[in-house]
Predict the 3D structure of the following.
Amino acid sequence: MCSNCDYTIHGRHFHYGWDNTFEPAQRVAPGSTVFFECHDSSGGQLSAKSTAADIAALDFGKINPVTGPIHVEGAEPGDALKVTIEGFEPSGFGWTANIPGFGLLAEDFKDPALTLWSYDPATLAPSAFGAHGRVPLKPFAGTIGVAPAEPGHHSVVPPRRVGGNLDIRDLSAGTVLYLPVEVAGALFSVGDTHAAQGDGEVCGTAIESPMNVTLKLDLVKDARLRMPRFSTAGPVTRHLDAKGYEVTTGVGPDLMAGARHAVADMVELLAGRYNLNPVDAYMLVSTCGDLRISEIVDMPNWVVSFYFPRIVFE
Amino acid sequence: MCSNCDYTIHGRHFHYGWDNTFEPAQRVAPGSTVFFECHDSSGGQLSAKSTAADIAALDFGKINPVTGPIHVEGAEPGDALKVTIEGFEPSGFGWTANIPGFGLLAEDFKDPALTLWSYDPATLAPSAFGAHGRVPLKPFAGTIGVAPAEPGHHSVVPPRRVGGNLDIRDLSAGTVLYLPVEVAGALFSVGDTHAAQGDGEVCGTAIESPMNVTLKLDLVKDARLRMPRFSTAGPVTRHLDAKGYEVTTGVGPDLMAGARHAVADMVELLAGRYNLNPVDAYMLVSTCGDLRISEIVDMPNWVVSFYFPRIVFE
């Protein structure tokens, strides 16, 4: 709950995918603070009793329900929706899955797999991974966006110019996000909450976790943004960086291939060093490893680096 | 100078490009500590009196001389060369250039441009940019590598599996780098020292700065690395992150295009906000802005984000 919010949007006001003809769940004035009950990306199909068999049985027609849409009075195409991310009310349950056909190393990891997480929603202390790992948490909403102008129904999976399934780890409490508005009222929705994720979300899922979210929605008239942008309130990796990083690289003429090389080498390194099943190492690094582009100018070869925070095991 | 080094490799022992027939400047036992006098990437063609006209006149046959090579006794193909980066002795002078035809936004910035930097090599206090900016410094060697097995002479510009022009910002003091050895003796060289760089090195140059480097060279026998990897001693962005970041994004099916979008939007944002010439903003962000891959799995669109540290202007 949120004592100083103007509105609560209950979890029953969800939709699948994006469509600018969806009826608003609420109309609000610019400057309103709104409390959203958000579903996890399985839409409740997975629980603390789930197994890898439940990954194989997922109904993909029901993934990633988002809560909304909110019609912001006066929003017009060309404006930016200014979303101040005020806070999260996490649930304490989470899951990470390898979903066949999805993820950066889908060719290497073809079988469904599941990691379950339990964490203290009050302290957000690092969540245990196996006997020796602990993954630092930083909640955020994986899917946050407004309706596209293009008519029809659009899949929730790809992010777009108007946001959506951005999966940007630093859209956490204190960050201010600006989204390009394409339709009258903006039609804002949010969901797919994550307790932790590394840059890249390399296995395709984060620590997926149902959570409530408090946001302030405001307008910047005629901002003419090309793409989403955001401002963080402070540092973004201090929950991860205290012990330094192990880093693998991919060097070559294709950034995607470089990212695959770097992640595959890290999975091999961690699986060997900590005696992990490779698919478990793959799911782990998706929750806390960061993909960075070290150089993108030394023709014809670029360097993509994958940073694993040693604090997880130290 | 280095009072506890085993060898000093003077700056006259440099070479252009890579060739495994180059005569070693020194043969050393594994575990040796070596002090290298390194040139900047212009090989001394630029100085504190240079102008953009000197960028147009650069002799590209003489760029990026590296100091070496060092033959490490007992190194064989399949081993890893373990390079412990002990420290830097910076010069206090630096430059950043937009070189026509080179850099992520080469199509947008076709004219030569030059930024000159002066910094205190003892304190490494942030270096002034214009009237209001200050760029935090963290020295590293942009080019660090061993000779490739492939016969012949190879350009210094692209990095390779054996390292070279990696331009990885976090190869700074305290980091341990592992390089795949492809020829007997490894034939290690280093140069292209930078006082500061953002991940991506987006304009094509960093704060290019002549500097001396102390490294310990050791072997890991039969390591069978596929690509370079490294371990950092601690956090990697705390010199940048205290005030948070402004972040622009590029959303779409191509990582390279996404990176270009994100960087172009940041250049426009900073040029507008701080009344900068766009090419000056472009050179600035190359020294301190970080390219990250926020998600690489939400088919068919990926998100590349460009992080500009607000501490530069706050």
